[in-house]
UniProtKB/TrEMBL annotation, chain A:
InterPro entries: Peripla_BP_I, SBP_2_dom. Residues 27-291 form the Periplasmic binding protein domain. This is Fructose import binding protein FrcB. SUPFAM superfamilies: Periplasmic binding protein-like I. Coiled coil: none annotated. Belongs to the bacterial solute-binding protein 2 family.
TrEMBL record, chain B:
The lineage of its organism: Bacteria, Pseudomonadati, Pseudomonadota, Betaproteobacteria, Burkholderiales. It comes from Rhodoferax lithotrophicus. Pfam families: BPD_transp_2. This is Fructose import permease protein FrcC. Coiled coil: none annotated. InterPro entries: ABC_transp_permease.
Amino acid sequence: MNLSTSLLLSTLTLACSAAFAAEQPVIGLITKTETNPFFVKMKEGAQAEAKKMGAKLMTAAGKKDGDTAAQIAAIENMTAAGAKTILITASGDAIIPTVKKVQAKGVQVIALDSPFEGADALFATDNYKAGVMIGQYAKAALGDKPAKIAMLDLFPGHPVGAQRHNGFMTGFGLKANDAKSNELSSTPETVCAGDTDGNQAKGQTAMENCLQKNPDINVVYTINEPAAAGAYNALKKAGKEKGVLILSVDGGCQGIKDTAKGIITATSQQYPLKMAALGVAAGVQYAKDGKRSSGYTDTGVTLISAKAIAGVDSKDAKTGLDLCWGTK
Amino acid sequence: MSTTSKRPIPWGALGPWIALAVTCLFFALQTERFLSGTNLSLVLQQVMVVGVLAIGQSLIILTAGIDLSCGMVMALSGVVMTKFAVDYGMNPYLATACGLGVAVGFGFLNGLLVTRVKLPPFIVTLGTLNIAFAITQIYSESQTISNLPESMTALGNTFNLGSTEVSLGTVTMLLLYVLAWFVLRETAPGRHLYAVGNNPEAARLTGISVDRVLITVYAMAGLFYGIAAMLSVARTGVGDPNAGQTENLDAITAVVLGGTSLFGGRGIILGSLVGAVIVGVFRNGLTLMGVASVYQTLITGILVILAVAADQMSRKGAR
């Protein structure tokens, strides 16, 4: 084979693959970070679904939660690269103007997990409901004992954090802001609050300080399962792990294992893989017939606990492990 | 060359102690639980990781450098030691040694790039920060490593001192500070370090191998980050790839609050301990008072600026 034939052949191959790529719907997925297991799972789910449906998936992520600059750049880059649908777990409202711009160019933008104004559609957990469910469980498990609650939150001003927090308090029967509020409610029963950044070491520090403030804390709300594991560490070191209820949200595989062991009393499980799969399907649909998705699709939430309590609907840890984040 | 010990005490040396005393007095008046032995022991446990990172950071800042990579190198070291022990079933002590080795290696790399390639420390460590972070995430697949052998969490154990429980990690941190203080104040290598920080050219002319001092300092700092990783692992009971994300700046904050000059050559290492404790006291005290945590961040920011301003003013006064 001489040089010109090989050049010709490779040009032909390139042309063919380009033609094929043009027919393949291109879908972008932008997550908050690349390191949070929740988003890692979401990406895996999207990749599997895209492969199954013959779509091409591009992915990008911010460096940390709140990194909207990286997300805006990713929206622009993906649009330039020909994505017709972009799925995004928004790090903040700063992305909205950019979203509007690319929507005007015919790109469908779907919110996964975190809602924002102007998205074509939203596939997400109802975080308020997730909070309500663990609140109801905690109330039923505590019975008539006076509640002394520690609230281990994410960080100030985060909608998901506020929804879970306020949902929990509502479920527990305390007065709290509604699902739309971004403010963390507080009542005399919530004796302590601390920020954890959703991280185990900071969850432990926050709980230690809370126990100093009030050693009789008997209910601990945690923003996620790493924070719950940290809170348990603090309680155990203080010799108080027995009889304290630890409630959480997420339902990751590690978190469910902790729930099986009784480290976490109950957790609200969410389904990132389902969000991703629905998002990819909506993207393929849009490429086929140009019909945009719309409205809110609740991807569901299940209460998981090793111990069932009368009057509260929950599934055991084994079911939780089978379902963890929507695998199997 | 014993200029450091005979010089009159600079403003920067007393400032941190006064700030700590005022802070403690304030919280003691606000909440009765604050001054209990248990609570104070707790604050020390909470700051031990940042405290040990700050030793390494102090050494580097004393040479007029800075290390942005410290938290990420700690995270990588912690992931390596726990993963080696859990996934490969390696002897826990050997696994820990491997983790320490990785941290020292990163420090050594920083030192080489600063001295041999003559890059500014800020840029070098900005690069290694990202490299260490990425390797940590790739290697751990962003998953925490749990089910650690007992020996790896032993530093988290406590013993009774009177009615107060003291953790072995706290004692380790305090011993490391005493050791670093002694070496810096009483030994030739310690004085060389100050000399290099004060005026590298003058140090070179007196026969000090500036490059060798710097490489040693960066590698030693890495060792301290590795020890911080051991403490972090012992405290939380897991290898956490997301550890160290805020601790790198916390460590720099502690050093600056402690009165060590960012221009190099001046500072007392024990000040960094005080700086770390001040931040821990605010976090603890404000929680006891029920104040939202953003105020802690606000106050820390103000304190950092005051500390650097005091350093600047004492410099001008000295001229």
